[in-house]
Amino acid sequence: MKQNGTLSNIQLNNLIDEITQLEIDEVGDAHHSTSANTPLRADAFDLTDNAKIALIEGHFREIMNVLGLDLTDDSLAGTPQRVAKMYVKEIFSGLNPANKPKVALFENKYKYGEMLVEKNIQFFSNCEHHFVPIYGMAHVAYISSGKVIGLSKINRIVQYFSKRPQVQERLTVQIAEELKVMLDTQDVAIVIDAKHMCVSTRGVQDTTSSTITAHYSGKFSEEKTRNEFLAHIYQQTNH
Ligand SMILES: [Zn+2]
After folding, report:
1. Which residues, given as ranges, of the chain have pLDDT below 70?
2. Could you write out the DSSP letters of every residue in 131-183?
3. Catalytic, out of 130, 139, 166, 215
């Protein structure tokens, strides 16, 4: 590496590239998030969905061009437009607060005061460090403070926060915080068990591990209540 004790410009540039790459890889593997909020710019929704789709289509076409793909091929010609539409309208649609599910609250007429558990809520998200899928199950519980929501709304809230570039830790906290506000209670629990394709298909290429994150608050901070929730979600179902 050294030439008479000094580095040539080329060697210096290579060294800088190497260090920069190491730093990028480290952030990608750390999966730390700085806040529960998705980092969005203030002007994030100044453009319409259609304007975003047109811009992303152009940029994605450029990525494919750089990779050397022949975009005149029938099979590839429509890909930039398909990817752009999928990003904005489907897999990243949860970035836009306009797409947040509208949730109606009901009175808890039955005076049901035990925990309600909604388990095995399947979700698909994408890792914000590599833009490849994270998928798995979310298990959610709450104890009513007098209000209840329709069961399918819990699934919709999970899906809404999943449809963003995410880290699993932030996804867990965002769902929990939304449920606390919506249900006007601190008594909320969530466990997420997920596979990260950035771990299974690249890097360490581990296909068997899964990642579990959890958030317990209010009564779920107490061991007895938490254990009851965990027993519900990990029991074998016979139907
Ligand atoms: Zn990743």
Report:
1. 1-7, 12, 16, 19-35, 236-239
2. --EEEEEEEEEEE-SSEEE-HHHHHHHHHHHHSSEE-HHHHHHHHHHHHHHHH
3. 130
Burial of 107 (0-12, 13-18, 19+ CB in 10 A): exposed
Collapse the DSSP code of 237 into the 3-class scheme (helix H, G, I; strand E, B; otherwise coil) and give the result: coil
User: Could you tell me which of 161, 157, 179 has the C-alpha nearest to residue 170?
Assistant: 161
Go through the domains of the chain in sequence order and give each one's CATH number.
103-234 (3.30.1130.10)
Distance 3 CA to ligand 1 centre (A): 38
From the candidates 31, 139, 196, 215, which is the catalytic residue? 196
Q: Report pLDDT digits (tens) over 115-131.
A: 999 999 999 999 999 99
Closest by Cα among 117, 215, 213, 206 to 166: 213
Residues 19-67 have pLDDT tens digits of 666 666 666 655 554 569 999 999 999 999 999 999 999 999 999 999 9
- CA proximity to 125, closest of 211, 27, 202: 211
Of residues 109, 103, 187, the one with CA closest to residue 146 = 109
Residue 22 gets which letter from DSSP?
H
Residues sharing a CB contact under 8 Å with residue 164, sequence separation 6 or more, in sequence order: 38, 92, 94, 95, 125, 126, 128
Q: How many angstroms separate the Cα of 138 from the Cα of each of 5, 101, 116? A: 57, 17, 14
Distance (Å, whole) CA 67 – CA 73: 14
Active site residue 32: no
Angle (CA) 187 191 197, round 5°: 150
